[in-house]
Amino acid sequence: MIFEAKDLKIYYRTKKGFVKAVDRISLTVKKGETVGLVGESGCGKSTLGQGLLKILPPKTFYGGSMKIEGEELISFSENKMREIRGKKIGMIFQDPMTSLNPIMRIEKLFYETLKTHEPEITEEEARERTAKVLEKVGIEPERMQEYSFQFSGGMRQRVMIALALVLNPILVIADEPTTSLDVIVQAQIMELLNELRQEYEMSMILITHDLGVVAEMADKICVMYAGQIVEEAINEKIYYEPKHPYTKLLLKSIPNTNIDDLELNYIPGSPPDLLKPPRGCRFAPRCPYKMEICETQEPKTFAVDNTHVKCWLYSEVKK
Ligand code: SF4
Ligand code: MG
């Protein structure tokens, strides 16, 4: 197993108490597997992505377990995490404009990144590796002399992908990698990611609010709601046989446009306050199938015909 989270908790400490942004999540990623993490904004998916790298505010609480190749990340010091970041777990962020230093030449940017993890690397070696990886993402190597502000949005995202790949990570976390791009460029970037993950046999966690985005790429999809995974199944199952009421609504609401979080308008109500989540099912206030038990007891996760679903509707099926 490349990555394994068990009963993982990531809570933000606030003056009013803990915000349970990720609450008792279990998740596995195998070699070469792409796992889609899908949900509305505020469901905890980005917290989870950043939590795996421990780049959240210093006082964030981590509980349970998250392991990369069997190594427990929760107990790692900041120094040890610095070795992991980039080298073992790469990250592709949503907005390359803010994550790329605009006043550094691309060449220097790659050199610095490589040098952090491979202090003995020469500038010449770094240049060669940079040229190779830029070519892979469809950028002419000569452009490494330029600054990131000289690139278009799509090109910047390619640079980000190349930067994540240059260290050969075993797991890449891509958080809304195409959200800020126009539709055509989005499709190109997704296609590129798809090719690269196959070529590099890379494992990937693909985070998105848009079920449409992960349709072609993810092997497995985890639907998140209010800090928890409510449904997990292989790709096709989620689309053709969704089980959790939230997944069903999410599928119905796939917009034919790419406006961020448009689906919020389609599912009535809003996600609960994670400072004080509902006692029973967190989706109960919005659920059309709500039963009595839903308001008082948190649903267990039931295994129903190769799907894992956290909903009382399936408690009979299992017996
Ligand atoms: Fe709806 Fe109850 Fe299932 Fe929650 S447990 S999703 S409230 S039916
Ligand atoms: Mg987000």
From TrEMBL:
Primary localization class, coarse: membrane
UniProt keyword Transferase, yes or no: no
InterPro entries recorded: AAA+_ATPase (IPR003593), ABC_Ni/Peptide_Import (IPR050388), ABC_transporter-like_ATP-bd (IPR003439), ABC_transporter-like_CS (IPR017871), Oligopep_ABC_C (IPR013563), P-loop_NTPase (IPR027417)
Entry similarity comment: Belongs to the ABC transporter superfamily.
Protein name as catalogued: ABC transporter ATP-binding protein
A Pfam family this chain is assigned to: ABC_tran
PANTHER family according to UniProt: DIPEPTIDE TRANSPORT ATP-BINDING PROTEIN DPPD (PTHR43297:SF2), OLIGOPEPTIDE TRANSPORT ATP-BINDING PROTEIN APPD (PTHR43297)
Hydrolase as UniProt keyword: no
GO MF, one example: ATP binding
NCBIfam families: oligo_HPY
